[in-house]
User: Fold Nuclear transport factor 2 family protein from Acanthopleuribacter pedis.
Amino acid sequence: MKKFVVMLLCLSGISVLHAGETAGQAEVRTLIEKAYLHGAWNEQNVADMEAGFHKDFAIFSPKGKEMARYEIADWVAGIKKRKASKDYDPNRSKVEYKITQLDVTGGAASARVELIQNGKLIFTDYLSFIKFEDGWKIAAKVYHRHK
Assistant:
């Protein structure tokens, strides 16, 4: 009976993970889904964003020969402003997604995420993560916008 209970507990823990996924990958996947995909995109829940993104997070993109930096504080402020607007449409930012790559090495991780809107691939995002004493945080993003 004891062996059966232990086996049952092990199997229930494994069922939470995607096939072949480690515990670290599962933690990062959960963070992507909660803080990024649902926090920043589908529900625009700034509390989830603030919990999952490091305070020094930034989106990096090219600006001519320079690199533009979009801070998390500015992103959160923009969402708050949009949500307070009388013209706010909660469906405007809804996306479907695919996490096509997820790599974890110790306390560092990266993910490739495809964002799809109205059946069309709109962004390929590359997210970086760092594991701190209080858990994983999204540290940075670079992306490609599909035309």
Summary: The first strand starts at residue 53 and ends at 63.
